[in-house]
Each structure stands twice: as C-alpha cells, then as structure tokens.
Write a structure and sequence with these properties.
By secondary structure, this protein is α+β, with helices and mostly antiparallel strands. It has a domain of about 100 residues: Immunoglobulin-like. The chain is about 20% helix and about 30% strand. The protein is built from 2 helices and 8 strands. The strands form 2 sheets. Strands 1-6-5-4 form a 4-stranded mixed sheet, with no helix packed on it. Strands 2-3-8-7 form a 4-stranded antiparallel sheet, with no helix packed on it. Strand 2 and strand 3 form a beta hairpin. About 5% of the residues have low confidence. It comes from Aquisphaera giovannonii. Keywords: Stress response. Belongs to the small heat shock protein (HSP20) family. InterPro entries: A-crystallin/Hsp20_dom, HSP20-like_chaperone, Small_HSP. This is 18 kDa heat shock protein.
C-alpha cells in the first residue's frame, strides 16, 4: 500500500473539467429548445406595420408540404416536420447536428387578422407569412362633429 501526498489543486482541476464537460454536453442552441409536448421551437421574426404582420420562420430542410399553418383567433401556430435521412449500410456518421423531427411555434398577435387575404411564401428554407390586419383592428380617426357646437351657440343666442 502506497501513501500518496494530498494535492488540493488536483481535485480543483478535475472539478473544472467536469463543469466544462457538463456545459458542453448540455448546451442547447437557440431555436432547438424542446416544448412541453416534445417538439422543438421554431425561430421567428415578426414585424408589424399599420396594415399587416409579416412573419418569417426558418425551416431549413423542410418541404412545403410538411408545413401546417393555422390561425385561431389572434393566435398563429406553425407546425413543421423535417425528416431524417436514412442511414445506408456501410455509412458511419461522425457528426449529426442537423435537426429533424417535429417543430412547432405558437404566437399571439394581439390583433385580429383577415385570413381571407393572408399570403404564405416558402423560399430557400424561409417561410414568409403576410397577415393583413382585419378592418376592425385598424386605427380609425374620429372627427369632432359641428352639430353640438351649433346647438350650444343657438342656446346661448336665444336667451
């Protein structure tokens, strides 16, 4: 049995290496955070103007037929599925980081949308939605009428 001298720094280096490994193994990229239902979240850009919302979703590797867009009230939901490539006999993967599986994102726009005039385009893995605001959601100017002022003038002149 050998007696070994205690070195406090040896354990500290091991702890640092363990923490580094923990961070490297558990690091999750933005946009791939699982939802509570097991699907990954889609990264979105949402822009609002006076007349419409423009939403862009990154869906690389997803076929347009595998995308489902629904609008329920003022809540927009985009679902998509990217299918994994089949492994072929004799191939050995060294690295496999491209995401596949089901992806979903729901956002509340806060304003009613005219679904009849909505437009969806899909090009180079980017889905672009143009959702015009419903007429009742657009701001309206209220003009002050002259009838009340005329009556006030008439009442004061008649006395």
């Amino acid at each position: 049995m050998a007696i070994e001298r205690w070195d406090p720094f040896r354990d500290a280096v091991s702890l640092r290496d363990a923490v580094n490994t923990l961070f490297q193994e558990s690091f999750v990229r933005p946009g791939s955070v699982p939802n509570t239902n097991g699907t990954a979240s889609l990264p979105l850009d949402i822009c609002e103007s006076e007349n419409e919302f423009v939403i862009r979703a990154s869906l690389p590797g997803v076929k347009p037929d595998d995308v489902q867009i629904t609008l329920h009230g003022d809540t927009l939901t985009i679902r998509a599925e990217a299918k994994a490539e089949e492994e072929k006999k004799g191939e050995h993967w060294h690295l496999r980081e491209r995401r596949f599986g089901s992806f979903q994102r729901s956002v509340t726009l806060g304003t009613p949308v005219n679904t009849e005039k909505a437009d969806a385009q899909y090009e180079h893995g980017v889905l672009t939605l143009r959702l015009p605001k419903a007429e009742e959601a657009k701001p309206r100017q209220i003009r002050i009428g002259g009838s009340r002022q005329a009556r006030v003038g008439q009442e004061s002149g008649s006395k």
